[in-house]
Amino acid sequence: MSTLLTHDEYCSIAKNISYPINPFINGKYIAPLSGNSMETINPATGTTITRVAACGPEDVDLAVEVSRKSFNEGSWSQKPPSERKATLIKLANLIERDQHELAVLESLESGKPISECQLTDLPETIDTLRWHAEAADKIYDQMSPANTNGIGMIIREPIGVVGCVLPWNFPLMMLVWKIGPALAMGNSVIVKPAEQTSLTTLRIAGLALEAGIPAGVLNVLPGLGPDVGEPMGRHQGIDAISFTGSTEVGRLFLEFSAKSNLKKIILECGGKNPAVVLSDATDLDSIAKHVVFSALWNMGQNCTANSRLIVHKDVKQELLIKIKQELKSWYTGDPLDPKNQLGAIISNEQYEKIIAYIDSATKEGAQLIHGGKAVTSGNGLFIEPTVFDHVTPDMTIAKEEIFGPVLGIMTVESDQDAIDLANDTCYGLQASLFTSSTIKTHQYARELQAGTVSVNCYSEGDITTPFGGYKLSGFGGRDNSFMAHDQYTEIKTIWIETD
Ligand code: NAD
Predict the structure, then answer these.
(1) Which residues are annotated as catalytic?
(2) Which atom of ligand 1 is nearest to 177's Cα?
(3) Quick check: CB of 106 below 6 Å from ligand 1?
(4) Which listed residue, 36, 43, 160, 402, has the most CB atoms within 10 A of its CB?
(5) How far is the CA of 194 from the centre of ligand 1 (A)?
(6) Are residues 238 and 303 in the same domain?
(7) Going residue by residue through the chain (499 aa), what tens digit of pLDDT does each one get?
(8) What is the CATH number of the domain that holds 116?
(9) Are residues 478 and 332 in the same domain?
(10) Are 337 and 399 members of one domain?
């Protein structure tokens, strides 16, 4: 059970915290072979938290060698599933033990509000690991409905060495979305965290060893994309890569695979997700809460952020009043202060990008109705929650993923126009549909081209439901649920002749 501490208590943890700075390879934190390091910045203050190792191709080679060795020796891959389950549950318990420190570490390097880290990211991280651990000894193989002269067994096997390449927006959650099912199925894993957020992933690697995951089975390589991600993508010794990040970089992994060993590639990429409010939507107070939350959660740096509100003209004015009211309860500021729901923007580059989108919306004729400015706080990177009305489909903010706290409102004449506009995007990750009609729910939830459609709420589903995208939002599989396990297994047919 997660509970919030006070601002002072979080500041005190932050003052005394120690930072893991070296890659974790073969069960040890060791100096990187590359000899390089990089800064980890606190985006809320602009100060350097610490310098972390920046690995290179030689570190990737070493990690692949020890991963392969551990896989072939079977210390994890051949362990009975019930024993893998017990070890992963132990890891989840250790994360729970250290939850306050991990929440602070996560907040310091990502700028996320501590209340979110403590009440959402940490509990979901722990639950996700427990769920995949529990699944480890509950997945059955199959027998084929074969002829009587043979027995056809269809079995799953771990793929081998799996690479996980992570984004910075939900460092802990994205980590366990991938290592949870990959380890539960018996693979050896190499993780490359985003360069902005290496610390929590490195800390978890130490906890994994403490839990009893054998040396070489979980390795973590901090570093830059071209120095670590690309060599992993091109490596002949890696059997699968699970990637979460931008569509642009996701495409590169398909190319790396095509030009190396045809390793399996699973991509979870960007989104330009709509909240669609139909003419018969009723509970506008609740809709306003969901719309604002979905646009602002994690400062809008969220692949399922509903950055487009597509609303029927009949309910628009009343909804707008409620949205403005709801925005008043969102406070921006020091991420370590539990009263703030909005923290800092991850990096200078991301901050400049968001400001440029805000400028483009004004220049292209959208009407600014809330926010729109930077919030000045020392060298911290903060942006006000921002809402534009009269956005049209040709505007840049209607088309591109902003990844910031910016909502664009588009008004439509009919329900069908709303659905058509919602689908008018190259992405297809998530859509929220608001209606009081069961018939429209059935019809339009099917028409919406997205991996997840939430009805009368904003949601990504939970650990029991598959998560992934249509169109440019994803490729090759789904995170969460039993489908995540499919990503990290090979299917083998064993045919036994019986006469
Ligand atoms: P990014 O694509 O810039 O980076 C993701 C990872 O790829 C990082 O670890 C990075 O170091 C690595 N990388 C960057 N360049 C590389 C290269 N040339 N070769 C190999 N690896 C490289 O994404 P980001 O900025 O960290 O995250 C934001 C993006 O992630 C957004 O587009 C967001 O929508 C997406 N995202 C998607 C999901 C999802 O589940 N669909 C979840 C979270 C974030």
Answers:
(1) 268, 303
(2) 40
(3) no
(4) 43
(5) 7
(6) no
(7) 678 999 999 999 999 999 999 999 999 999 999 999 999 999 999 999 999 999 999 999 999 999 999 999 999 999 999 999 999 999 999 999 999 999 999 999 999 999 999 999 999 999 999 999 999 999 999 999 977 789 999 999 999 999 999 999 999 999 999 999 999 999 999 999 999 999 999 999 999 999 999 999 999 999 999 999 999 999 999 999 999 999 999 999 999 999 999 999 999 999 999 999 999 999 999 999 999 999 999 999 999 999 999 999 999 999 999 999 999 999 999 999 999 999 999 999 999 999 999 999 999 999 999 999 998 778 899 999 999 999 999 999 999 999 999 999 999 999 999 999 999 999 999 999 999 999 999 999 999 999 999 999 999 999 999 999 999 999 999 999 999 999 999 999 999 998 7
(8) 3.40.605.10
(9) no
(10) yes
**Is any atom of ligand 1 closer than 6 Å to the C-beta of 186?**
no
Residues 240 and 181 in one domain: yes
Amino acid at 461: G
Domain count of the fold of the chain: 2
Pocket test for ligand 1, best of 303, 403, 473 (most atoms within 8 A of CB): 303
- Shared domain check, 203 and 92: yes
Q: Are residues 265 and 278 in the same domain?
A: no
Cα–Cα dist 368/419, whole Å? 25
For a pocket test of ligand 1, which of 52, 178, 244 has the largest count of ligand atoms closer than 8 A to its C-beta? 244
For residues 303 and 166, state if they share a domain: no
Q: How far apart are CA 115 and CA 5, in angstroms?
A: 9
Domain holding 152, by residue range, is: 7-269+473-494
Counting every residue written for the chain, the total comes to 499
Q: Is 429 in the pocket of ligand 1 (CB under 6 A)?
A: yes
Residues 290 and 211 in one domain: no
